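Shipment paperwork, digital attachment
Item: protein structure file
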Amino acid sequence: ILLNMEQEKRERIYTFDFAKGVAILLIIPLHALICQIGKNDPAFFQPLITAIPENVIYLLIPAMILSMWGPIFTLITGANIAYGYLRVYNRNPDDSSAYILRRILSAVMLIFVSRAAVFIFKGGLFTNGFFNIFNYKIRYYADTLDSIALTGIIVPVFILLFLDKSKSIKQKNETGKAVSQKDVKRIYIGMTVITVIWFVFTPVVHALTPYVQDFASKHHLRLLMLVWSKLTAGRFRFFPILGFGYAGAVIGTAIHAKSRYKNIRKYSGIFFLVTLVGFLIWILLKGNPMVNIASDDIPIMMQVLNLGTMTFAMVLVLGYLDYCPPEVRRRRIERTLWIRRFSIVSLTIYVMEFFLAEGVYWVFAQFWDNAVALVNEVPIFIWNFAQIMVFIIVICLIWGLIVKLWEKVDFIFSLEWFMIKAVALFQRDKHARINSHKILYGQ
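Attachment content:
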């Protein structure tokens, strides 16, 4: 008899770990293609893309969609935070505010540790061979870490708005549960409405950008310029990327509420079909859906389709890894160990993968020359497809070896390790550690 997750208590949702691991494994080759081979220059990709025959372009749509799956980290964060927050709230509503404060601290540490690592290792600390601690530059755009950090704060705040704390305490005293089915429905409806509003208003917010920039520049309002740039600039600008986190919160809420898996799958499948139909209509109206994968300007309908496919894919993985009989689940968890291992140091790999790939590219370039050359100002591939694949496979294999060996020392000195130690200082916990063995093997 198949046992759904609602029939047993499970603390860890392995789907989140698996999804993060897969996302990192997609980022490593994608960034190698964009940053090393393409020199992180959108101009390199546009001529190549426009030269592809239209019938081939339609065949490449699935690969193109996967190349734009960076927001999946925000989706996972929204799901994970909603699940964790509701567990805390259900145990004791009075602890909910402390949870949000911890998320704020974690967000600050995430940004600080990641920015510090980039500042040190990407040469910001040293300029022309000289030490310069004041060379830090403010980023007037949002990256994926910004969206992850803010999602971790704003999702529990929104959920708290849909809960009546006084009623929750009364329910806790009467039934032992602070979150009722009515609360769950309000969260479903509320987060869904917020997600729709967020995507609908994204073009409006972007249309206001020239006026806001002009006003901020005229009145020397640098803080306004910084905030607005996070909303509208960069590949992971808050409009629409935070919408992925809100949608993820619906999934996390469903998991916490122990909703039946067939219902979760049904509604996520309907949502996927709606986004797919909308995307196909958009293709008929706009024509060629192919966009420059290195560009920040991904069309909103492409992002909507991304949201639909990511949501449905995560739910399918949820059924494979978490909503299945215990014995089957145990075997599948073991088979996905090598993928989940990457999730533990996803931040470290995200920040540091550039340096490893750059080193490998330098070695390859000594034998094969640069991958792309400019001929009459037009980028031309020097490497063939086989050479590119060998380059990418070597980078992935090196990371696989590093992560496997690193596990033996509990990923000491990773950015995640530094974050845990930094937060532990505030909590006065001298024994805080990653405890990767428990995460990976459940022991």
